[in-house]
Design a protein that fits this description.
Transcription Regulator spoIIAA
Length: 115
């Protein structure tokens, strides 16, 4: 839904893992950038991967596919994958697809660090 501006993803190392915070819509044009950041973060096999979506107002099916791929990788490698700070539109998309029952979804970063 947004222009072709590149997706910026902040990466923060924490004691037991990594927090990724993308900024902007995650759509077909931008989901490859998120996929790359997720893949890079998972290479070190952290105990926990937190995806903070507080600055993602929109996500399409390619973004959902990217999240599902990350979930599969984290499960295979016994890594905790927590999604937090969902904006209303993204939460609605995840709820419609019933993915809130598949992912560990929490309200905020503090909860994600305790999950």
């Amino acid at each position: 839904m947004s222009g072709a501006t590149e997706l910026v993803v902040d990466v923060e190392a924490i004691s037991d893992g990594v927090i990724l915070r993308p900024k902007g819509d995650v759509d077909m044009a931008r989901s490859p950038a998120l996929r790359t950041k997720l893949t890079d973060a998972l290479k070190s096999k952290p105990a926990r991967l937190v995806l903070d979506l507080s600055e993602v107002p929109y996500m399409d099916s390619s973004g959902l596919a990217t999240l599902i791929e990350a979930l599969q990788t984290t499960r295979k490698n016994k890594i905790k994958f927590i999604v937090c700070n969902l904006m209303p539109r993204v939460r609605s998309i995840l709820e419609i697809a019933r993915l809130t029952t598949v992912f560990t979804v929490v309200e905020n970063r503090d909860e994600a660090l305790k999950a």
